[in-house]
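Example record used in the benchmark description.
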Amino acid sequence: MPHIQSQRDLSMLKTLSAVLLVCIPCAAAAQEIAPFVGAHGATTPGSYVSAAADAPGQLDLWPDQSFHLSSGATSHAGRWHADPARGGLVLDLGGESLVFEVRNSQRLRPGGASDDGSQDLVLSETFFPGPIRLPVSGMLTYFADAATIVHCATGRTYPIAQEGDYPELEQAYLENRPGPTEPVFVTMDAMIAVREQMDGPDRLTMVAEAFGSAFPGEDCSLGNRTLDLHHAVWTITALGGIDLEPTDNLREPFMLCDTNAQTVVASVGCNTMRGGFSTSGSDLSFSQGMASTMMACPDPLSTWELRLGEVLANVTGFEIGGRSMRLLDADGARLAELRAVYLP
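Model output (structure tokens):
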């Protein structure tokens, strides 16, 4: 180590060290290429921050067309594309979109915002993605005491921090993986933030704050789209451990939920049940004594129908991962398995 000649040298060294400590996360978070202005007119990779102090927000853009967006307590992550007709960038928020007009490489304006620039997002001097919290689904892989996840919404790969609900996440992977090092579809509430790494520079890392569930056989084929009860026709594939197979010349077992009318229609292929339901977050309950047509049903349909009535009477919650949905009882046990079909 060179000899420090004076207090001035020592002061300069401390200042330089402080600058380096601040800049290391910035450079590490980028991890790609130097910022450049794309054909769409915006700078990528780039961090655009709100010009209004009373309305904090940040949009991080990557050249691979992924983004992170935070606005107050709300965060999104997904894919963006350029829209030449509107001279802007369109962010896919999963079921809806948000348009930013590209004023120039330094400034983005939300669609419909006033021309005074008070709602604009302005390019930061450094690219430094801020932390975001959001529901996450992705393909988890565990190998050599380390876990990584491919985030379905963005397609980006993140290391998983060994904190929060990491033990539950690892255990779910080991119990559901189809084979060593093969990925498993999982859901969780997560934070994505820059973290130190055991080897290499700091980088964006995913923290499992609340593990959801594992869904063997699912994948990221839905992209950034989020399904809910009313977004699909749900075929019933299993009731209380009994696998259901469609019967020749009869309608396949199904359930349809209308969240506007709060009504449900369900059948295993014989009689049709109708009733009401209520839902809040992941809670779900169906009305007792549902109305039903009264046809005589041959086996196994009669057995399936009795089981369907029992299941609907005991449901207290649900969980969705990819195209799969599970109906759960008060203890979290699986009462039924369903799959979304005939999606656009």
